[in-house]
Amino acid sequence: EVQLVQSGAEVKKPGESLKISCKGSASIFTGYWIGWVRQMPGKGLEWMGIIYPGDSDTRYSPSFQGQVTISADKSISIAYLQWSSLKASDTAVYYCARQRVTLVRGNYYYYYMDVWGKGTTVTVSS
Amino acid sequence: QSALTQPASVSGSPGQSITISCTGTSSDVGAYNYVSWYQQHPGKAPQPMIFDVSNRPSGVSNRFSGSKSGNTASLTISGLQAEDEADYYCSSYTRSSTVVFGGGTKLTVL
Fold it and tell me: Quick check: A39 and A46 in contact, CB under 8 A?
């Protein structure tokens, strides 16, 4: 079955670090990009960035560049999203999803996210 | 990158058709046919309903259809059913090589 399994809910204090994970089957990781999407409480979806686990090529939304780190370990089919110093405003549900990408005349185009994890709730509160 | 503009809410009765608009710019919706739509039920992960403006992923009902004109994309749901009540989000690839989502539309089935 094609699925992404995300790590469990986290409760952290401001300033703490955190790394959440997203594990997929080899079939879902191999040759595909994995992305992260934030959904703050009661708000909409925000695209954070994507990674190609095959070579760790990573692309960030300017809004999240420098705020988080996306990484992956292709040997165990896991992608990660991490923070070095959490803020209360990082409180949200974070989804991982397989980002479908097409290569046209040397340019990558990210056209949709077809498989989604169930989400990881991150709560940052003192 | 500003979010794409969607109406906050739409409603319809069972059996009716509704259309949700998604307005962007010439740097995103107007520039590419890489518009997709997602359905999200409360407490659940989003699920794709339309990709590449008008294509349905396998398993999605043909009651869902998509289109685009200029900088505005649209999602139409025909034969409205109670199970269609959810939040809907559009998204588009952008000239900045990122993806932008719409603010979301809450669909109420009366």
Answer: yes
